[in-house]
Amino acid sequence: MTSASSNHADIVVVGTGIAGLATALALARQGLAVALVGPRAPLPPLEPDRFDPRVYAISPASRQLLAELGIWDALPANRIAGVRAMEIFGDRPAWGRHPGRLGLSAWQAGSDYLAWIMESREIERVLRQAVQWSGIRWVAEAFTGAERGPDRSGWTLQTAGGTTLHARLAVAADGADSRLRAAAGLTVERFDYGATGVVVHLRSALPHQECACQWFTPDGVLALLPMPDTDDGHQVSMVWSMPRAQADALLALPEEDRAATLEARLAAATRGRLGDLRVRGTMHGFPLALQRCPQLAHEGVALVGDAAHVVHPLAGQGLNLGLGDVQALVRVLGGREPFRQVDDPRLLRRYERARAEPLLAMRTVTDGLFHLFGSQPAPVAWLRNAGLDLVDRMPLLKRMLVNGASGA
Ligand SMILES: Cc1cc2nc3c(=O)[nH]c(=O)nc-3n(C[C@H](O)[C@H](O)[C@H](O)COP(=O)(O)OP(=O)(O)OC[C@H]3O[C@@H](n4cnc5c(N)ncnc54)[C@H](O)[C@@H]3O)c2cc1C
């Protein structure tokens, strides 16, 4: 494998989240000289019964990528919870009708699991170890600026610690506020949902039975994801995308009142589906927005992960989309003709084309659901609940939805 020990590399990846680490690792596996730029803050040690508040639903396609990178088998199996089924509940419309309900199971897609729930930091931990063993040069400093040389001679990148790196291709994996994207002149369109994703782990009186539950409530979208049991009992992870003012008010309460308020609201929203629910951990809030970049690549810079797109978390697909970018970019660069350099505009166009359809589909679904269930007029409320019931009785459509939900 070629190494980027000097300040010259074929590719510099900026950003050391999951998308950046996976990109650097996958490209280095192709024999390219890769340098990685971004912070390497120590991760808290793995402790039984203490879980990272950030968990992701990893799709079968993302699992496949992690397996190809040798990451999947290195993840601690006792920290992973499989999702065999999903239950989606509508809201309670006026005139006392039942909320709509839709059930999806893995067997409808002919597979064992729809997704796997795991902690962000455990995926990062294993990816970091693999990156360190792979000979990738990791400059653990923030990227500060870049300049494009004349005649497609590549990019010169600067870091906060004064390091200068040269590469033909720079990959922006530095998140939603990507500085490299801005330096390359790539634009971003942003729509603020006016909502916050409140996340916390909960102890549930009843076992989740490997089922992820989601409620479209008048107070936003509530998801309870299966988690490994603890000594304390059964566990689920909550993501409640609620109007920002409500989230701000909740998060501003003193800790005990905050837990009690949330528990009362959970009882009303879930109506005993998982029995009594108790807060076990610290609550965090993430502002939610939709972001779209008209161009995913230009002049020797390619965007991946949240630097390329941000979607509402109601489908739990943001990171999965990012790992889809990684897979597509690696496939395009790995399949290039021998006479093409890694920054060849034709390759970058191929990457953009490969991602256009999946990105549009996911944006349409997540944004559409958000607006459908955010709408209050009675006829719309009736229609969405009746729609869930109807789909529940249509096996073919359900199979398509299962494939979509599992990213297959
Ligand atoms: C509430 C919530 C729940 C979610 N649930 C799911 C889910 O279940 N499934 C799913 O697939 N997705 C989910 N997502 C989406 C997911 O969190 C993101 O899509 C994913 O974290 C993006 O990863 P990334 O590596 O692209 O970006 P990030 O995780 O943002 O990483 C960016 C990295 O770049 C680094 N960086 C930033 N600036 C610089 C700089 N100047 N120089 C160098 N490095 C820099 C940062 O330190 C960071 O390491 C959820 C999101 C939210 C808000």
How many independent structural domains?
Answer: 2
CATH architecture of the largest domain: 2-Layer Sandwich
Q: How helix-rich are the residues, as a percent range?
A: 25-40%
Shape: globular
Mean pLDDT: 90
How far do the termini sit from each other? 32 Å
What is the CATH third-level topology name of the largest domain?
Answer: D-Amino Acid Oxidase, Chain A, domain 2
CATH superfamily of the largest domain: D-Amino Acid Oxidase, subunit A, domain 2
Give the SSE map.
Blueprint lengths: L7 E7 L3 H12 L4 E4 L17 E4 L1 H9 L12 E3 L1 E5 L11 E5 L9 E5 H14 L3 E3 L3 E6 L6 E5 L4 E9 L6 H5 L5 E16 L6 E7 L2 E11 L2 E11 H8 L3 H16 L6 E3 L4 E9 L4 E2 L2 E3 L5 E2 L7 H17 L10 H30 L3 H15 L2 H11 L3
Parallel strand pairs: 1-2, 1-11, 2-8, 5-13, 11-19
Antiparallel strand pairs: 3-7, 4-7, 5-6, 9-10, 10-11, 12-15, 12-16, 12-17, 13-14, 14-15, 17-20, 18-19
Helix pairs in contact: 1-3, 1-7, 7-8
The structure holds flavin-adenine dinucleotide.
The site of flavin-adenine dinucleotide has 31 residues, from α1, β3, β12 and α7.
